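Researcher: Here's the sequence for the chain we discussed earlier.
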Amino acid sequence: MNLQKSVWEPSQVGAWLGFHLYFSLNIISVPLPKITKLKESISHILAHRLVNAKDLASIAGQLNFMFLAFGNIVRLMSRSMYAQISAQSSWFSTFSR
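Model: Thanks. This is the structure I predict for it:
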């Protein structure tokens, strides 16, 4: 048991697996740096005409991580990304966006 990371007093706020938890409000939130990284990744893809499967998979993974905070809408709206990724022959196969 890691005593430095342990919290021995009850708390209404916490952090778990990269999420911020607010128990009194029933809210799970994503930290700002993770949202910023996702926005930068999306901007990178939108700035280029050709996209490779690895970059798109990176965005899909970041969105999948945020599932607990955003809910099922993440999986619904990213379904076509997974289809496009799985259709590629390698990580570095490119396709137009």
